[in-house]
Structures are given as C-alpha cells and as structure tokens.
Give the backbone structure.
Amino acid sequence: EVIDGAKSCGYNLPADVAVEHMKRTETMGAYKPSTLLDFEAGRALEVEAIWGEPLRRARTGGTAMPRLEQLYALLKSLNARRE
C-alpha cells in the first residue's frame, strides 16, 4: 500500500523498499512507536499528520489503502474516546 500510495503522489519507490525498512527495524531491538508513547501518556495522537494526510493524498491520487484506512479509523476512535 505504501509503495502504491507514494506512486500515486509522484514518488517512485523501489518495490523492495518496504521489506528493507522492516529488516532494518528488526535490528533495532525493542522500542515503542511515538503514537504508542503518546497513547500511554494520555496525549492526543497525531492521527491527521501521521496517518490521515498520507491517506488523503493517496486517495486524491486514485490509490486505495484499505489497511491504512482501517488503522486510521481505529486511531481516530481512540482519540475521540479521550475527548
């Protein structure tokens, strides 16, 4: 999805870029993403900047991103529960 979304926005990423990033992440050891740190600290999640905007740009470019849409909806729901 990420590669297709990027392509719809005019960025041509190599097909293996996602796999390479995942391999690099595996060598980092245990860590918590910033969204999880915000959630655990009771802060608002940066849903729009990190998840919503890339999704909207991909949609504008004609690319569906169903997994990202699902994640975006779940994170928005978590944020709404805190308001």
Notes: The chain has one domain: 2-82. The radius of gyration is 14 Å.
